[in-house]
Design goal:
Oligomer: single chain
Largest sheet: 7 strands, antiparallel
Length: 855
């Protein structure tokens, strides 16, 4: 049978906040304030009082099922007079995310961003055993609505994300570097103007960059923008990439996908679909080194009401597909691009649903099931398959329209099921949709997600189902697969090891399960993610590894007896005990104990020699047995390679500062590259939030939140005017430092310069930088003389991230030579550039170290 292969324990706490229409007529002001729990004198109380003009609404809005407070609808209508309410559109034309806005306001009545949660490094939280893993970690506020994606080019890497409305509001991010055995947690930084995030999506490009999109929402709830972020260190830290929705301010309910296929002409293109107002839009980034285009509207007259609840997928030929439902005419629709998203076909009809927009069922009657379309595509020389799946009523007698919804009635004979339609000709025509698991019992299925295993075309779907609860309130997550292009489906497999009930006291009634779950799969291993509040705990995000290989796969036992023995200065020999049934063994290595693992080889015997290593360096190993699927890790073994002979001693520290014992400029020299310019904003050591200890080195004002000045092109140089001496014969000269920043994006920023004579300084090229790299250039609008076009660290990054610089490459760029920095006194200029207008908090630098391999 199928196996789910690991887990973490979940503890969470409840939050209140359902938003339903009043029973009779317009509500009283007191009832609205009470429902929102608005503190007296708060910004939220003031906002509610300012938006009692119910004459701006339609009379029927006093009784509809849209779970958005009426005062918030008034506020939205004032901000967006272009919005047209239609009683034929069950969404009312309101963005679905207004529900999240109401919940955020309830938990942040000052209408200000919350305090960011502390990062949890991977492996800091223990896995307690079992089959389900809580990837969101121990939290004090609910998580709901999630996305997950395996890195197709390195399946040991997985990222996920979820809403974090009741917490800081910043999108919660999860990452694993060892196939999901351990997880870390962080959050996305807020882009300027945003107060919180909603609707997470994630994916990977082939260069190892992780990507995420989210809705950036301002504190006054008048602007919804689509924001893209990226991570170059496996999801540990994130930087803002772009606002890819352009000037739109009603952007809602997006989904992201990367073209993963090596055979596609558009490999690594990043696609995102969403709706702005009523129409469906799509945009694409032309790979990690490319750029975003402009939003393209792809829905037209075929779509009435609102095009809300989309998905986007690609196949191995580079064809791209966007799927969406229409709330007005109940259609399930699709548009296709064959030229990398430059143009798209007119929307075509996949099917017509029975219900529209959302459905109330006993287990999910507060937030209600969103009719979300999830799609997939698979193409070979002989196949051209496209798939769509969604939740709908059964269509049986008494269950054919919104008037038949079960709502809170557990005895209703009307039920919801997961429907799938397929096309065998690339989306030109579609089969009649079918229910893939139509049980006879009174139960409901909802929140499906579908994925195609791109290695073999296998289909997999997950969804919630109340079938195991006679009371129709508690859910499990179930998994079904198809190995014949969607013609037939396997029996449901229960993924969850405990039920969730979102109807009892203490549940997060504003969000409940959220609008969608996620599923990612590659080469027979699938990772779903879902919202889970088992044992009446807080809502959290969980996963489990479901393994297939045409038929279910049982992993072999983990290898035992692993030993690691150094052999000379560049080799470590490994050996372990045989595992019954194993066809091969896979060897993984880390640079630190318990750290991120990289596969370094395979063996069909019980030994392996890891060659080409660095002398005098520790290495850490685990081995996994393989028999159709992988075992768990062996116990770790480590070895340190032999002493370097006739070379150099790596990692010799030439300079190091953490600033905690320093005052003033800490022995640094400041200067300016601008005639008549000022270096006053280089304040030196300050007591501000630091990466380690209590102090940082600061470009900004005299307080931690004070702004820098305009028109600066100034540097601060470690170790004074003489710089840092690098001994002759040295190699591998390296600068590392940690930093956070708040600059006007694209106009101000920090960069690095280098000089070997103290007179002529050169920009450190991006090619010499790893970790957190330059993420923009200085605009030519009004920069200091000579600064336009300089590559910089720009925008906002509220978390400390590490940058590593190959100083030998920088010295070679400065001198035109090939000898690196050896025998030179290197002057490193941490350089800040600011233009003529907007000012921000600046640059916070910590833990600066220069090392080299010295004779």
């Amino acid at each position: 049978m199928r196996k789910v292969v690991f887990a973490l324990l979940l503890f969470v706490l409840p939050v209140s906040g359902a938003f339903a229409a009043p029973a009779n007529g317009w509500p009283t002001l007191k009832s609205q304030l009470d429902r929102m729990e608005a503190p007296a004198g708060s910004a939220l109380e003031k906002l509610i009082k300012q938006n009692q003009d119910f004459g701006l609404l339609q009379p029927e809005e006093a009784y509809d099922k849209i779970p958005v407070p009426l005062w918030l609808r008034v506020h939205w209508r004032k901000s967006h007079p272009e919005m047209v309410y239609s009683p034929a559109d069950p969404s009312g034309g309101y963005p679905h995310v207004l529900k999240e806005i109401a919940e955020w306001m309830e938990h942040h009545p000052d209408l200000r961003p919350g305090r960011r949660e502390a990062d949890v490094l991977e492996g800091q939280e223990k896995t307690t055993g079992g089959t389900n893993v809580r990837i969101s970690g121990a939290q004090t506020s609910p998580r709901s609505e999630s996305d997950i994606r395996v890195n197709y080019w390195n399946t040991q890497q997985i990222i996920g994300g979820s809403n974090n409305i009741g917490g800081s509001g910043q999108q919660a991010m999860f990452y694993s570097s060892n196939g999901g055995s351990t997880w870390g947690q962080t959050t996305l930084p807020l882009q300027s103007g945003d107060a919180f995030h909603s609707d997470p999506t994630v994916d990977w490009t082939s260069d190892g960059t992780a990507w995420s999109s989210t809705i950036g929402i301002n504190s006054s709830a008048t602007s919804l923008r689509m924001q893209a972020y990226k991570s170059t260190n496996g999801g540990q830290t994130w930087t803002w990439d772009a606002t890819f929705s352009g000037s739109q301010t009603q952007a809602d309910k997006q989904m992201m996908w990367v073209d993963h296929s090596a055979t596609s002409a558009f490999k690594d293109y990043i696609y995102v679909c969403w709706h702005n107002g009523n129409p469906q839009y799509v945009n694409r980034r032309t790979g990690p080194a490319g750029s975003w285009g402009s939003p393209i509207q792809i829905s037209g007259a075929e779509t009435t009401g609102t095009a809300i609840g989309c998905d986007v997928k690609t196949n191995s030929f580079g064809d791209a597909f966007v799927f969406w439902p229409a709330t007005g005419n109940r259609r399930i629709l699709m548009s296709k691009s064959t030229n990398g998203g430059s143009t798209w076909s007119a929307g075509s009809i996949i099917a017509t649903a029975f219900d529209s927009y959302d459905i109330g069922v006993p287990s999910f009657n507060g937030r209600r099931i969103l009719i979300y379309v999830t799609g997939g595509a698979y193409r070979t020389a002989t196949k051209n398959m496209v798939y769509a799946a969604w939740t709908d009523l059964t269509g049986a007698t008494g269950c054919t329209s919104a008037t038949n919804e079960p709502g809170s009635n557990t005895a209703s004979t009307c039920k919801t099921r997961i429907w799938v339609a397929r096309s065998t000709n690339g989306g030109t025509s579609w089969s009649a949709p079918v229910m893939i698991n139509n049980q006879a019992s009174l139960n409901d299925q909802f929140n499906p997600w579908l994925v195609v295993d791109e290695t073999n075309g296998q289909l997999a779907v997950i969804y919630y189902d109340t079938v195991a609860d006679a009371g129709r309130k508690k859910t499990h997550v179930y998994y079904q697969a198809s190995f014949d292009d969607g013609a037939t489906w396997s029996s449901p497999f229960q993924v969850t090891s405990a039920q969730t009930d979102e109807t009892i006291a203490g549940a997060d009634s504003g969000n409940q399960y959220g609008d969608y779950n996620s599923l990612s799969g590659y080469a027979g291993t699938f990772f779903p993610s879902w919202t889970d509040r088992r044992n009446a705990a807080r809502e959290e995000i969980w996963t489990a590894a479901v393994q297939e290989s045409g038929t279910p796969c049982t992993p072999p036992a983990a290898p035992t007896g692993l030993t690691a023995t150094p052999s000379g200065s560049t080799t470590v020999n490994l050996s372990w005990s045989a595992v019954a049934g194993a066809t091969e063994y896979r060897i993984y290595r880390s640079a630190t104990s318990g750290g991120a693992l990289t596969q370094v080889g395979t063996s069909t015997s019980t030994s392996f020699s890891n060659t080409g290593l660095t002398c005098n360096t520790p290495y850490f190993y685990v081995v996994r047995a393989f028999a159709g699927c992988e075992s768990a890790n062996s116990l770790q073994a480590s070895a340190t390679t032999g002493t370097c002979i006739g070379t150099c001693t790596p990692g010799t520290v030439l300079y190091s500062k953490n600033f905690d014992a320093d005052t003033g400029l800490a022995g640094w020299t400041t200067g300016t590259f601008l005639s008549g310019g000022s270096a006053v904003d280089w304040r030196g050591a300050q007591v501000c939030t630091a990466r380690s200890g209590t102090k940082i080195f600061r470009f900004g004002n005299t307080t931690c939140t004070g702004d820098y000045g305009s028109g600066r092109f100034a540097y601060a140089q470690p170790n004074g005017a003489t710089g840092i001496a690098v001994p002759a014969g040295s190699s591998a000269t390296t600068l590392t430092f940690w930093h956070r920043r708040q600059f006007e994006s694209g106009f101000d920023g920090g960069t690095l310069t280098v000089s070997v004579n103290g007179t002529n300084y050169f920009y450190v090229p991006a090619s010499a930088i790893t970790g957190t790299t330059y993420n923009g250039t200085i605009s030519n609008s009004c920069p200091p003389t000579g600064a336009a076009g300089a590559a910089v660290f720009t925008g906002s990054s509220t978390s400390f991230t590490q940058t590593t610089v190959n100083l030998d490459a920088a010295c070679n760029a400065a001198t035109g030579g090939t000898g690196g920095c050896a025998g030179q006194s290197v002057r490193i200029g941490f350089t800040a550039i600011t233009d003529c207008s907007v000012i921000q908090d600046g640059w916070f630098i910590d833990d600066v170290t220069v090392t080299a391999c010295t004779p």
